[in-house]
Amino acid sequence: MKIENNIILSNVFNIALILLVGFFAMQNLNVMLTKLRFVEIADDLNASFLEMRISEKNYFLYGDEAALFEIRDKINNTMESIEGVRNDIARAIGEDNLEKLRDYLKRYSTAVEEMRRSGSRDIQMETMLRAAGRKLREFSETTTRLEKRRVNEIIANSKKVLFYSFWAIVVMAVVVSHFISQKILRSLREIEKLAESISKGNFSGVSGVIPADEFGAVMSAINTMSEELKTREEELIQSKKLASLGVLTAGVAHELTNPLNNISMIAQNFVEYHDFLNRENRIELMRKVEGEAERIQEIVRNLLDFSKPKEANLKEADINDTLQKALKLMQNTLDISNIETRLSLRPDLPHVFIDGHQIEQVFVNLILNAVHAMSPSGTLYLATGFSENGDTVRIEVRDTGKGIQPEFLPHIFDPFFTTKGVGGTGLGLSVSYGIIKNHKGNVRVESTVGAGTTFTIELPVYKGKEAGDEQIQDNGDR
User: I want to staple 418 with a disulfide (CB 3.0 to 4.6 A). Which of 43, 173, 426, 472 is the partner?
Assistant: First the structure.
């Protein structure tokens, strides 16, 4: 059932329960008001009956004949009052009790009339008069007392019913809200897992039974989207493969063409001028061939390193030591190029888990690029530090060279992309990028034309043997 329908049904049920409780409360309230109305009337009647009994006592004590007339008049007034509110009394105590009340009044009225007509103090008539008055008052007081008790009982029962009804509504609302919220949360968790899975490249979609509600419709739409994304991803991967293959083929062809052309030209010259060349000229030509062959070997070696990186031999290491080793390897080149080196190495750096030789190769590539950008003079800045959260170690290689054009920055890590002309293969930064990524690190570049370039490398901090074993396993799985 849809969530909307569940909410509507729960609301209808709660509203129906509230209306039922309200109807019951109104019924009890009407009964209570009727009883209270009778109690008010009964209080007035009791007051009248009390006055009649007082007049009766005055007659017996003082022989005042006028007291009997007063009793008769009060009885008549009371009868008229009862007739005026007859319906209210009947609803409160019923027709039978109303008739009893009227009968007691008539008996009392008859006793008073007989006493008044006789004009004498007859003991039997006095006894009858007193008995009729006493029964009238007792009946009225008893009836009033019972009705007051019934009013209290109605109030008490109404309080109980309202109390239990209130908690029943609260419990029902909590149960229904919990059921609906859990259903919504379960669906939201499924959608969250699905979205996270899609963000990681897993387009398998939702497995199992999809609920027949609004979230089920969302999940079905996401499943459809996942299938479409999977198809698009496969198409995109295939197109990227073809594009990469085209770039790689063009790059290899371009890089190999120059040395092969040089070898061909040298060979032609060697054949054509062989008889006119002395021994030194022939050796010089062969050395040029050897140089061009070595250049081809370097291109092929870099290409192999790029396409199939060597397995990393990861060990705990101090990044400052690794950087200084790379700097020593390049110190002669820096001195020849008249480049000043400034170090800012933080001494309290945590260790990293790296292949020292591969990271040295990255530093050598970056330093060599800086030399080419600044030659014949400039300043090379090497600095280390770590992130604010302490999760990564940061290495900066900054030069004061000519900088990189903004349109070239997005492509500097692409294979065979170079700004050095015929002097570079365009694979150094690509290989370095791959090494850093294999170490679960990151590398970024910032450059200003005419001011210099800064390469920033971030490597994860070594967090113990278990983390190191996991990283080794990850590198082995690649």
Answer: 426
